[in-house]
Amino acid sequence: MNSPLTAGRVADYTRDGYLIVKHPIFSPEKFAQAKAYCASLFDAANEGGNIPAIIDCPHWRDPRMFEWIFADEMLDLVEPLIGPDIGVFACHLLQKPAGTGKRVPWHEDSAYWRGVLEPMTVASVTLALEPCLTENGCLRVVPGTHLHGYSDYAPVKKPEDEVFGIEIKRSEVLNARAADIVLQPNEASVHHGKIIHGSNPNTGNLRRAVLTVRYFPTTVRFVSDAHEYFKQGFHIYLARGRDHAGNRYSDPTKAYAKNDKVSTA
Fold this sequence. Notes:
It is a single chain. The protein has a single domain, classed as Sandwich (Jelly Rolls). Helix content is 22%, strand content 25%. It has helices at residues 7-16, 28-45, 66-69, 72-82, 109-113, 171-177, 228-231; strands spanning 18-21, 54-56, 86-96, 104-107, 117-118, 123-128, 139-141, 153-155, 166-168, 179-180, 188-192, 197-199, 208-217, 221-222, 237-240.
């Protein structure tokens, strides 16, 4: 392991639940390849003018994604935070078109994954493919909230203006405490799966685009029958080290459809 994280930065993550890594993650050549490949997936998804906010788990269908998901540069970011035995739970390509990208309400990923990962220990690495700025709807987090992880939710007031329809209550308080995650291309952030986070609408003239990978320590058990979505077929992968929880992992050299049942607890 050749991690850029010092003991002090690990302590910051433990306290705050997130980190910003303000140096290039990949070499210029490797980042250019990742950006171009992700751009091709965005272009395919954007055909017909229907621009999705998320491309869900593209690595299942496109094994080439593991060139970056399994890269030492990514794994070395999370190993000091979750240990040397690392699994990949999910991967997402996220985008917000310039001037039209919707707001993402305050939420915790743990609220959607509750019971699926036991215990709820996930470190999400977000690699900026394009500038992530306050004006184009960068990620925002509420420091320290990962120590809880299961807030109360209520319907949003204007669902047509939001990416999804529920939000953690008391959003005014959350807004007052939030920290913006401003990144330049090839920089990254890491946030805990239980931290409260969201993002504002894109009011700028630049698209926001990121690759987010969800890593977990293999002491965590994946419980595929805990939620209907995961019963339909969901693929987890062993990225580094060995398993400690009896998980079954999918083959990163194979392309899968969502209903291919391989990874079961």
